[in-house]
Amino acid sequence: MLTEMEHHSNIVPWQLLARDKGAQLKYVGISDDGRLVGDDFRQHLENGGIKLFAVTQASNVLGTINPVREMVREAHRYNCRVLVDAAQSVPHMPVDVQDLDCDFLAFSGHKMCGPTGIGVLYAKRDLLEKMEPYQGGGEMIREVHLYEASFKDPPFKFEAGTTDISGAIGLGAAVEYLSHIGLRNIRNHERDLTAYALDALRKLKGMRIYGPADSDTRGGVISFNLADIHAHDMASLLDEDGIAVRSGHHCAQPLMERLGVAATTRASFYLYNTEGEIDRLVESLGRAGRVFKI
Ligand SMILES: Cc1ncc(COP(=O)(O)O)c(C=O)c1O
């Protein structure tokens, strides 16, 4: 079971697995204000047969922060394991796997001031013990003979080959840096910036913002479209004013289909952004509106 707000990286691997195992995918839909539809979630569980629920903790498009803790509790009542995509939460807010009680949780180094090519997959120890290695090579073995091999204890049995040592050192530095600033402080800062930006953006003529209206239940990303200006044109105009946004489908094409748009423009905030920069964004959007005669 997945949701309609997942990043491609939390859809495509499950499509491949479903193809290989003959499993079926079920989707939890989203409401018009960008929240998961609780009835869909419960209905799929009640229908039975759901083995795994893979859900994003924070949407990279809508900003929605999902009630993961409550969903884990509910899913476990049906013997359904839960995997949390925390790529957009771990860098931005305190996340505690024991409190969530999730079975798996994944996040990426490059979204948290760390290097590309490295990330973290957490899993409960009893699951790691039951799982077979998915790759073979040096480092992960205990003993190798001509016709058989035995493997190290988890997590090492999953680390085939020479590990990404430099990546791990870089990611460790990023973790220390963010922990020193404090994830709670980062979350508060982003929540304030998001509330400030939502207020200002809503006043612009022709503005359509996607996702929940309330900054308490959303992370620091705001996806929008201004009248019928294409997101790529918008990104180019903002770029001329020195403002970097992302435009396109944000690796969430099923979500774009659900929203009925081909693309959106997305402003994203992090610990280094300021209210002054949001004022510049709003000014620049005003200019874009004038260029396109809105
Ligand atoms: C919510 C979410 N999940 C997963 C990913 C994928 O992470 P990676 O690029 O490290 O594969 C991203 C961003 O790329 C994301 O925003």
For the secondary structure, the number of strands is 12
Bound molecules: pyridoxal-5'-phosphate
The profile of the biggest β sheet is: 4 strands, mixed
Main sheet strand line-up: 3-4-5-6
Share in helix: 25-40%
Give the C-alpha Rg: 21 Å
CATH classification, class level of one domain: Alpha Beta
Summed over residues and divided by their number, the pLDDT gives a mean of 97
Strand content: 15-25%
Number of helical regions: 10
Q: What is the CATH fold-level name of one domain? A: Aspartate Aminotransferase, domain 1
**Sheet/helix structural class:** alpha/beta
> What is the architecture of one domain at the second tier of CATH?
Alpha-Beta Complex
3D architecture notes:
It is built from ten helices and twelve strands. With 294 residues, the protein is an alpha/beta fold. The protein is globular. It has a domain at 183-287: Aspartate Aminotransferase, domain 1 (Alpha-Beta Complex), CATH 3.90.1150. The chain starts with a strand and ends with a helix. It has helices at residues 12-21, 38-47, 68-77, 97-100, 125-130, 165-181, 183-202, 231-240, 253-259, 275-291; strands spanning 2-3, 27-28, 52-56, 81-85, 104-108, 119-123, 141-144, 149-151, 207-210, 221-226, 246-248, 264-268. The strands form four sheets. It has a four-stranded mixed β-sheet. Helix 3 links the parallel strand 3 (52-56) and strand 4. The relative contact order is 0.12. Bound molecules: pyridoxal-5'-phosphate. Pyridoxal-5'-phosphate binds next to loops.
